[in-house]
Amino acid sequence: MNNDNALNANVGLKLRGLRLQRNIKQADAAKDLGVSPAYLNLIEKGKRVMPFPLLWKALRYFEQDPEQFMSTLGEGRVDEALAKLLDEPLLKSLDIDSESLQSLSAEPKLAGTVAALFNLYKNTRTQLENVLAQLNVEERTRTQGSTSGPGSTTPGVRFDYSPFDEVSDFLEKHRNYFPELEEQAEGLRRDFRLEQQLTSSQLIRMLEERFDFKVQIERAASGSSVVRRLDLDARTLTLSPDLTEQPLKFQVAASMGLMVMDREKLVERILGAGRMRHGETERLIKVNLANYFAGALMLPYGEFFKEVQRTRYDVELLSNVFGTTYETVAHRICNLSDPKRQGLPFHFLRADIAGNISKRYSGTGIRFASGGGSCAKWAVHLAFLNPSQLTRQYSIMPDGTTYFCFAKVQLQPIEGSIVKGTAYSIGLGTHAENAKYLAYGLPTNDLRKDAIPSGISCRFCERTDCNQRAAASYRFAFAFDEYTKKDCFFSPLLVHEKEKGERNGNAEAPGNGAESSEKQDSLDRAARRRKVHEN
After folding, report:
1. What DSSP assignment string belongs to 53-89?
2. How many C-beta atoms lie closer than 10 Å to residue 14's C-beta?
3. How far apart are CA 315 and CA 325, in angstroms?
């Protein structure tokens, strides 16, 4: 919008606001000003230039000082209630510009209604989330006795069962192995006679020759973080110039995965007749399968399996051998479920420094908390204490299951700043007895002694003496005594701990146990008599 148009719009909006404040109908104002209602309507919308004689007449009509009115034309003020919503994520996603907000501000009743409805929506959403969380807790409490074994899941309705949970269950059901995608990736590598390490130039050439798509490097619009856009109609793949070589390779390979799946109808074949609980799940699965294809194309199963055996699952070394990221290799290690060339079972976690888990896969039967959060004793979280080193540990779950886990922090700064960029911890784990097959394995003479006691998450952990607890567990009744302090407030006071305190208190009282008991009974009877008398 140029300056003249902006001025016209401001004049019109402010005059409309003055008219509405005085509850004057547009037709009545037009009649008093000597113009048609249609002409006044165009002026108020900023679509017509208002002649100065008419402007002075309007200002007198609305009893406004011309100098003050003209001085406020450049302010572009937005209704206060609307202004408070400018930083709301939902409004940001709608991309409402300042001009639209100013237009809305000229309608005071409408602006107030929009703000009130949005706040009502936020409150309702919060209440719904609280209700669902409570229902989930109650359902888990009712069914907690029916679980058995480290890999079992809680039966019954899961009110917090998200599309991402459904995708995780889908991957675990297929053991994170999809031979159809392996075959397609292997066919492409064979047709183009690819070497072990791929370059982005090779992948771009493959995409252009095999799929007849044009690749262009173009920066996204200001304020957008899109790094890849695949336009099926224009047959173009647009990539961000900020992508470095390794993520660039992955994005091109994943784009080819989407094209292959569309051409071969692979998603429909893999899903079969199964029905998903959430509408978004199928598209999320497609994204996961495209990423799987990218891994299969850059890390071909046969060659990768041989190198995994040779290096004994040395993820850092493998990332150098194949010229890809640590995270991509960690993902691919979880795909080795071909019955003829089967690798060790692993679970995978990606967490940020706040403990949020953004990716997870259980190939070992370990259980994850579906509602978010996990155990602070896990290696994937402790790795942030030593980001330049590999963090390794044995861990033991409350049911006695033991794992060997290792994690490494991956930093990707932007403009030299980690705060502007990303920091993730990539964790892998397998059963403790498999540690001897790993380059990262730790020696142990007494696994039960060396393993770190851990759990699923504080809310669902059975441990009663964890010094890192952040909340009480739903697994037992929370009990405490103001006179007895444990090393963590949220660890419940056990019966034998409470009895010991009572015995110590009795031992300090004068006389023997019988005399102390009789004295206490006498005091209790006196207290009851006083209570009856007071009532």
Report:
1. HHHHHHHHHTT--HHHHHHTTTT----HHHHTTTT-H
2. 20
3. 9
Higher local confidence (pLDDT), 76 or 29: 29
Using an 8 Å Cβ cutoff, are 27 and 37 in contact? yes
Nearest Cα neighbor of 399 from 447, 354, 366, 355 is 366
Sequence-distant (≥ 6) Cβ neighbours of residue 144 within 8 angstroms: 154, 474, 475
Distances (CA, A) of 111 to 10, 81, 176, 212: 17, 8, 51, 50
List pLDDT tens digits, range 246-276: 999 999 999 999 999 999 999 999 998 778 8
- Per the CB < 8 A criterion, the answer to whether 241 and 219 are in contact is yes
329-361 burial, b for 16+ CB within 10 Å, e for fewer?
bbbbbbbbbeeeeebbbbbbbbbeeebebebbb
Q: What pTM did the predictor assign? A: 0.69
CB neighbourhood size of 304 (10 A)? 24
In sequence order, what DSSP letters do the residues of 1-58 get, joined into one string?
A: --HHHHHHHHHHHHHHHHHHHTT--HHHHHHHHTS-HHHHHHHHTT-SPPPHHHHHHH
**What is the torsional sign of CA 87, 92, 98, 104?**
negative
Report the distance separating Cα 381 and Cα 470, nearest Å. Answer: 14
Phi, psi of 517 (to 5 degrees): -65, -45
CA dist 382 to 72, 389, 400, 463, Å?
57, 11, 21, 19
Confidence class for position 73, pLDDT limits 50, 70, 90: low
- Round to whole Å and give the CA distance between 395 and 431: 10
- In the structure encoding, which two tokens stand for residue 480, read together? 């405490």
Joined tokens for residue 282:
């199928």
Contacts 24+ apart (CB under 8 A), 133-141: 133/159, 133/160, 133/371, 135/159, 136/160, 136/371, 137/474, 140/460, 140/474, 141/474
Q: Which of 163, 322, 324, 162 is nearest to 246 (CA)?
A: 324
Region of residue 509 (left: phi > 0; alpha: psi -120 to 50; beta: else): beta
**What is d(CA 418, CA 258) in angstroms, rounded to the nearest whole number?**
31
Q: Which residues of 459-486 are buried (b: 16+ CB within 10 A; e: fewer)?
A: bbbebbebebbeebbbbeeeeeeeeeeb
In the DSSP assignment, the letter for residue 352 is E
3-state secondary structure of 440: coil
Residue 290 identity: A
Rounded to the nearest 5 percent, the helix, strand and coil shares of the chain are 50, 10, 35
C-beta of residue 434 within 8 angstroms of C-beta of residue 404: yes
Nearest alpha carbon to residue 337 among 310, 316, 308, 368: 308
